[in-house]
Amino acid sequence: MSMLSWDESLFRNIEVFDPDYIPDEVLFRDGQIRQLVSCIKPVFHSSSPINAFCIGPPSTGKTSTIRYVLREAEEEIEGFKYSYIRSPRFKEPYKIFAKIFQDVIGHQAPATGISKTAMMDRVWRNLEDPLVVVLDDVNFLSKNYADEVLYEILKAPEEYGVKVGVIAAATDIRFPMLLDPFVGAIFHYVEIHYPTYTYSEVREILKKRVEYGFIPDVFEEEAFERVVEIAHNAGDVRYGIYLLKAAGMNAESRGSRKVQVEDVEKANAGESLSFIAKIVSALNSEERAVLRIIYSQEEISTGDLYDLIHSEVRMGYRKYYNVLEKLERLRLIDIAFGDKGRGKTRYIYRKFDPEVVEKALEF
Predict the structure, then answer these.
(1) Is the peptide bond before 110 cis (omega within 30 degrees of 0)?
(2) What is the pLDDT of residues 321-339, one digit of tens each?
(3) 174 vs 165: CA distance, rounded Å
(4) Backbone torsions φ then ψ of 320, nearest 5 degrees
(5) pTM above 0.85, yes or no
(6) Residues linked to residue 54 through DSSP beta bridges, in sequence order
(7) Contacts 24+ apart (CB under 8 A), 311-320
């Protein structure tokens, strides 16, 4: 029988494809995990955790390794306390402080009638054990908000005698340099780097999800290799994981016992917009303007693009290259050398369908 019956599924455990799933083993990130463990290890001896700053392009394992280490610490350290905060869900200081309040005090902060200062005063006065505060995707916070949040946490040991450390994660390596000097002066941290996954690493990570998530042999090899190719080209393992799940659901909706290339292609067409929209949400108005101009061109050199942007957006040379660097880091564009005239010129290449990017910019 080639068709699935009503009570059959291609999935063995569909939860392994959920965004918040933490695998038992985080592949290719042993070094980063060791560094994170060393930063949290002092808590085992009731000492202050060491601040850490995790930096790398999107989908390079920052969140996975942090949550993995937090889970391990919960199992190993009695009474281990942490507050995990991820932007852009928590984008305002009050919401961030309310989350810390809830994690430390044990119940939600009052909805009204309490100031941020009073809220955090209560937190610090009731904190007896070391605390780890995780600020994931911290670069989604505005500069002023980031300054306020970090200063409140980092000054607490001196003012209240508490033991607290920060683990921050960001895609922008320049983030610490943008902080207020008063914050930078007290934000001492271990810098943990996350390089982009290679093609073979992407393949191995996705292979493990297929093994854990699907019934054996239901995901055809050609379909799987197509997912690997799409995920690597997008520079995002998470997108590959989304595609695995979506393709499996497409196959089930057809009643098929096999996940085929057509299921992957259909999933890619449906998921690419939301995927790109999520990345674009990290851009400000000027960065969006540059991206829109890039995607209106078939192919353009960095010099020609600057001339075009300077006339339309009035952007300085240094800022222009900072924007290009960010767009490349977010895997929205590729920049490579090409021949032009007598020398080498850098060219900018689009990575996605221009129509999909334009729709994402309208979100």
Answers:
(1) no
(2) 889 988 988 888 888 876 5
(3) 21
(4) -55, -45
(5) no
(6) 169, 192
(7) 313/286, 313/289, 315/286, 315/290, 319/286, 320/290
